[in-house]
Each structure stands twice: as C-alpha cells, then as structure tokens.
C-alpha cells in the first residue's frame, strides 16, 4: 500500500505500548482491551509513530506534540495571537464577574481589573505553549515570525528575542527577502487520476544514515538509489510479481534468498554443526534447510583454507562518516591480526566489483589491507589486495561527492530490465 510503511511503524509503536502495559500488570488480552476502552472513554490520544521516510514532515498541533522530540521543528507564526472580539463577560474566581455594556462610554473599574487578569493569564498560557513547541527540537528550531506593522507588534517581537537563550545556541536571522519560496509542485492528470510528480531534485534532504549496501545501488544507477533510499518507493515490479505468482511458483512456501543468506550468516557466526542447524532452523522447509546446510558446509572446502581459521571478530557493527553522509553496516568477519575483512556471499551471481565499494569502506574504517569475498554457492574465494581497496575507496568518495551535490541522473543500461523500479522509471529502455 502507498502508506504501508507508516502503518507498519504505527503497529510497532502499538506493540511497544502493549509491552509497556504488560510490565505494569496488564498481561492478558482482556486487561489490555479494558484499558484501551478506558483510554477511549477518556478521549486519550496517542501520537503516530515517526514516519519511516527520512524526508517526511509530520504536521501536528503544539498540544499534540507533548512528550515528543524531533531533530528539526518548524513553528509557523511563532508570535501569532488569538483573534476575535473580546467577550462581554469576564470571570475570575477571586475578582468575581463583570459585564461590559455597550451603552457605557467608559469601562468600569471591575471590568478593567478582570480584563487585566485575563490578559495576564493569556500571556502565561502563550508562554507555556511556546515553551512546549520550542523544546520539541533536538537539533534545529526554525521560527517563522510575522511581526506586522505598528509599535505594539514590534515591541512584542523585541521582547520575544530578549527571552531567547544566548549561551550555547547559535542563532540566525533571515529577512523575508532572504527566504526563497520553493518551486510549486505541478498537479498532472494521468488516466483520469490526479498525479503529483515528486522527484529527487537539488532540494532533497539526505537521510541521516545510509546502509553500506546502498553504495552499490548508487554506483549502478543514482535514480534507483533515489527511488529506494530517498523517496521510499516500493519496488513495484517485485511486489506485482510476488502478488500474482507466489502461489504458482512457490507452492511449498520456500524462503526468499535473503532469509537463506541470513540463516547462513548466523550459522557461520555461531559455528553451528549440521545437528545444531536442524535444531535451530527446524521451521525451515526441507529444501531450504538443505540449501543452508550445503552452503555452511561448503565453507570447510580447501578453497577457503586461507581465510577459514583466523581469530575473527564476527558480526561487528560499524558507522563511517564521509562528508555529510554516515554509512552503517555489519562486517561479517574481521581479523585484526591479519588485517583482513571477510564477507560471506550466498548470491547466485559472482560480482566482486559490485561489492568492492562496500568492502573498501569496511577496510578503510578498520585499517585492513586485504578483503575477501567467499562465494559459497560457487566455491570461489575472491581477494582484494591493498591497491584494489584504494580503488574501491576512490569510488566511494566519488559517490559521496555526487550524493552531496544531489546528482541522481539515471544510467540506462541493459540491466534496467531487471531493475525493481522499471515500472515507474521513465528512463528505462523499452524491451519487447
């Protein structure tokens, strides 16, 4: 579904609430349902989960933002006050009640006292609401201020600036002329339906982190990278094929290649024997379990003798910051003594150059001088020497420079026929 990722995030948020309630004693379905019904009667509202898309904006009221925190918060109309005519009745628990009659030329002292008390309460409430809004920002707070004309709004604006913190906070002021208006998005019609075409242009915000594997995608085709990692598009071709052909092509409920690969990595990490494999992966379909066992046992072959018995650090998570981009990944195995990075592959195709940028980045971060790919389906070991890793790091640095320059032009090639985004990309060459 178009908003499937958001729905999944909300389900995970609800799962977290259920775990929290279980710790508080609501451990069964009936108790949890009763608690939900009670919250509904009280009108309790829970915020939605943060959007899984890194460039998404979440709109909410200030009151709805209580208890939340975001990297960037934009408060529109930070000095805006409520409008409308004042009421003809004032109430105060201490001063009593006063009426404002239109026939009187001057307000009574009682009315003026009640009006002054009301203004003080309104000011306090405005300050409290502003505090709630401003403290939602973890890194950057953007305030949009329309001061109006006349001495009163300007005085309020100056008082507002005087209450902002000075120490440890960098402040930047922009006049209206310095704030560029974004280009309008054009609404088109295709097949009788309105379509708002959003592309990854120069103004796109890069995610805070990217998986190391995204480097291969970017170097292969920046447009495909943008579809997957910036716009959050689903690989429509894959979803369509899976929906209409799953039962016909997979009657035994066979697992996908990624799940098999994950199982192989876990087995090699923990050193599972054949017996332990059957115990740990007993829920696998027999053909899948046989595939995993075969791939794990293939690592005992002579072709891998050079890299097999080493004092490895396994499944090591890393973060590497290059320029404005931070890459995250997990190194399958790292030998600090032999300065070797090892990566297991269960791919059906041998493509060492495709994985070179990933291994070069691992080696650069860990100080390794060699890297190896163990292609378990093919009994093949491919080793990158120091010169190869330097060449791969140059590819990574070039990719980062183009990422920061927001260069996402497509690279049409015969490989487009296998791209999961070929159904939405207008640059893919037509195939018969």
Throw out a few tags for this protein.
single chain; 432 residues; alpha/beta; 6-stranded mixed β-sheet; two-stranded parallel ribbon; 12 strands; 17% strand; elongated; DNA damage; helicase; helicase activity
Task: Give a structural overview.
Helices cover 40% and strands 17% of the residues. The chain has helices at residues 4-23, 29-41, 109-134, 151-162, 214-220, 222-230, 236-249, 257-270, 274-280, 286-298, 305-308, 352-366, 386-404, and strands at residues 70-76, 89-92, 96-99, 137-144, 187-190, 193-196, 209-211, 313-322, 325-335, 340-345, 370-375, 380-384. The strands form 4 sheets. Strands 7, 8, 9, 10, 11 and 12 form a 6-stranded mixed beta sheet that branches. Helix 5 packs across helix 6, helix 8 crosses helix 10 and helix 12 packs across helix 13.
Low-confidence stretches: 237-253
By DSSP (H or I, 4+ residues per run), the number of helices equals 13
Cα-atom Rg, whole angstroms? 30 Å
Oligomerization category of the chains in this entry: single chain
> Could you give a short account of the major beta sheet?
6 strands, mixed
Q: Which secondary-structure class do the elements indicate?
A: alpha/beta
Helix content: 40-55%
**End-to-end separation:** 29 Å
How many strand units? 12
Strand content: 15-25%
Query: SSE order in H/E notation?
Result: HHEEEHEHEEEHHHHHHHEEEHEEH
Described by the principal axes of the CA atoms, the overall outline is elongated
Q: Which whole number gives the mean pLDDT?
A: 80
Organism: Deinococcus caeni
GO molecular function: helicase activity
Domain UvrD-like helicase C-terminal: 34-146
Domain PD-(D/E)XK endonuclease-like: 212-426
């Amino acid at each position: 579904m178009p908003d499937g990722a958001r729905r999944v995030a909300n389900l995970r948020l609800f799962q977290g609430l259920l775990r929290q309630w279980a710790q508080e004693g609501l451990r069964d379905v009936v108790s949890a349902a009763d608690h939900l019904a009670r919250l509904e009667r009280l009108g309790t509202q829970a915020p939605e989960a943060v959007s899984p898309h890194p460039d998404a904006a979440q709109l909410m009221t200030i009151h709805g933002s209580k208890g939340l925190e975001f990297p960037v918060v934009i408060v529109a109309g930070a000095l805006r006050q409520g409008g409308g005519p004042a009421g003809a009745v004032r109430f105060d628990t201490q001063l009593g009640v006063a009426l404002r009659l239109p026939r009187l030329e001057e307000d009574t002292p009682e009315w003026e006292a009640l009006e002054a008390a009301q203004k003080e309460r309104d000011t306090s409430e405005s300050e409290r609401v502003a505090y709630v809004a401003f403290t939602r920002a973890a890194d950057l707070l953007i305030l949009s201020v329309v001061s109006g004309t006349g001495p009163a709004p300007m005085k309020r604006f100056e008082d507002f600036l005087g209450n902002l913190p000075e120490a440890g906070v960098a402040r930047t002021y922009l006049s209206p002329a310095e704030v560029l208006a974004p280009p309008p998005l054009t609404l088109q019609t295709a097949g009788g339906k309105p379509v708002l075409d959003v592309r990854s242009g120069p103004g796109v915000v890069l995610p805070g982190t990217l998986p190391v594997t995204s480097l291969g995608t970017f170097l292969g085709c920046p447009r495909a990278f943008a579809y997957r990692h910036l716009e959050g598009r689903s690989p429509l071709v894959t979803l369509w094929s899976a929906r209409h052909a799953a039962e016909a092509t997979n009657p035994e409920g066979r697992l996908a290649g990624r799940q098999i690969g994950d199982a192989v990595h876990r087995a090699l990490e923990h050193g599972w024997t054949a017996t332990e494999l059957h115990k740990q992966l007993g829920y696998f379909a027999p053909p899948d379990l046989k595939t995993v066992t075969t791939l794990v046992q293939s690592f005992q072959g002579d072709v891998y003798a050079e890299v097999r018995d080493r004092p490895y650090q396994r499944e090591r998570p890393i973060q590497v910051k290059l320029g404005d981009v931070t890459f995250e990944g997990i190194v399958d195995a790292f030998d600090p003594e032999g300065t070797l990075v090892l990566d297991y592959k269960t791919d059906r195709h041998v493509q060492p150059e495709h994985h070179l940028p990933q291994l070069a980045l691992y080696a650069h971060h860990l100080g390794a001088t060699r890297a190896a790919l163990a292609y378990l389906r093919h009994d093949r070991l491919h080793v990158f020497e120091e010169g190869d890793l330097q060449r791969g790091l140059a590819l990574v640095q070039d990719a980062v420079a183009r990422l920061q320059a927001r260069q996402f032009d497509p690279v049409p090639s015969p490989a487009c026929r296998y791209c999961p985004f070929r159904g939405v990309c207008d640059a893919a060459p037509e195939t018969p």
